[in-house]
Known about the structure:
rod-shaped
Amino acid sequence: xxxxxxxxxxxxxxxxxxxxxxxxxxxxxxxxxxxxxxxxxxxxxxxxxxxxxxxxxxxxxxxxxxxxxxxxxxxxxxxxxxxxxxxxxxxxxxxxxxxxxxxxxxxxxxxxxxxxxxxxxxxxxxxxxxxxxxxxxxxxxxxxxxxxxxxxxxxxxxxxxxxxxxxxxxxxxxxxxxxxxxxxxxxxxxxxxxxxxxxxxxxxxxxxxxxxxxxxxxxxxxxxxxxxxxxxxxxxxxxxxxxxxxxxxxxxxxxxxxxxxxxxxxxxxxxxxxxxxxxxxxxxxxxxxxxxxxxxxxxxxxxxxxxxxxxxxxxxxxxxxxxxxxxxxxxxxxxxxxxxxxxxxxxxxxxxxxxxxxxxxxxxxxxxxxxxxxxxxxxxxxxxxxxxxxxxxxxxxxxxxxxxxxxxxxxxxxxxxxxxxxxxxxxxxxxxxxxxxxxxxxxxxxxxxxxxxxxxxxxxxxxxxxxxxxxxxxxxxxxxxxxxxxxxxxxxxxxxxxxxxxxxxxxxxxxxxxxxxxxxxxxxxxxxxxxxxxxxxxxxxxxxxxxxxxxxxxxxxxxxxxxxxxxxxxxxxxxxxxxxxxxxxxxxxxxxxxxxxxxxxxxxxxxxxxxxxxxxxxxxxxxxxxxxxxxxxxxxxxxxxxxxxxxxxxxxxxxxxxxxxx
Length: 662
């Protein structure tokens, strides 16, 4: 009952553990699949946004360039127009060319200083931008190298995790096999101990069928022959033949204690063993040296279906034939004592029935009740059977122990490999974690890109301002080279009108181009913001979630998670053990019922015996009481005789005469 309950509990616990692990694994798998689906959708959206940004970039650049070009043209036209306006006002301000030139030279000096300053600032800013771009390029290369190293670390970690999972599954399978071997070893150990106990019981049964001194002497013969390696000692006669169980009683009756004679090859071996027994003070044994046994031929067995020559029912090796003919050749197995009486006289043979009743050649009959449970041959058969079973159990146990040692070595190897893989996995995970921490510092940040964009705008503004200064300087220098006139010429007036119209047209086109460029910039900013703040951020969150799940699975595998397939195999094995336990329990219950029935029968026999003893005790009491009465009367008669005294001789003579008279 206990084994079955333990098997049931083990099966239930294993089933619950398997269901829990499968549910957890299914939940993790579903969450991971959902995260990967969303990650794939985000990747598609990121790709689409990046494609839109890539398509928008040249359009924005074209619009920006167009706006800048229009602005430059507008500024050049405005500068020429302003110069014409200035010449018109300057003619009224100065009285001579020298005064005008002096004022223009002063203004030209200022413009040159301003132009030089702006060009220096533009050159410095351009150099700084080149340096920043170079550093950004290096940072991007470093980031790419860091990402490559991170991917390599992740790959190593994943490969190590797979190795750990495979080795853990192998370790689990080997452990299950080792547990099975432990159980088998325990069962074989119990079976071996049971066989040893039954063998001891059979030994005691055989021992109780002979005298203690004979048993000790026979055991001494076996011990001395083994210790001193004396060959030619074959053992007791009872150990050297087989016979059908139905002839056990007849053979035991015929052979009696001769079954314990020790068969040896020669009389020299017998003499040596006798000497060893005498020196060891180990008792007396009858030896049967095969070279000295000369059983007579025959006898002539009767030709009848009611008799069987006993020696013909014995199975033994040919070399032992003299010993068996010496003891059994003059014994017949007969149907009953009547048949035995007839053939014992006619053929001078000892006859024995299957029940053990016998009639010898001299006519003496013997028989009665025979306790089959104390059969010597049955005890010897049990000894032989149990020795073979014990040897088989010990051999199987040794094989199981050897297999267990081999499995232990294999488990040790797998554990060593698994520890190496776990160490590699931990190292790869630590390297990946360190690389991921250093990766943001290596990658160019959005703030740097924003600063670079502002610097590029400032550089463009400086170049535009420098270009304006340069055009104003050119206009001043052109005016210095021109003649001093009090008013504008008709050509200049006409040029002024054209420039006014051109400035207005360029201004309108510039405003429109700047508006379109601003819209493109706004759209690009919106796309970049959505890509940066929404899509990529969510993408990074999902990737971190997947990494955490992977790390959780890694820790679970490192912490001793069990492969569901291996758990299912163990569950199936436990169910098989449970079924075997139920079957064994049923057999035990059948055996228990049989033993109870035998116990009840024994109790009935015991009660009958006690009743018979009580009846016999009552009868004995009656007989003792009657004996007391008779003894009392005898004593009374003796007292009366003593009181009467002796009778005279004449009384005897008269009594004789009276008795002899007719």
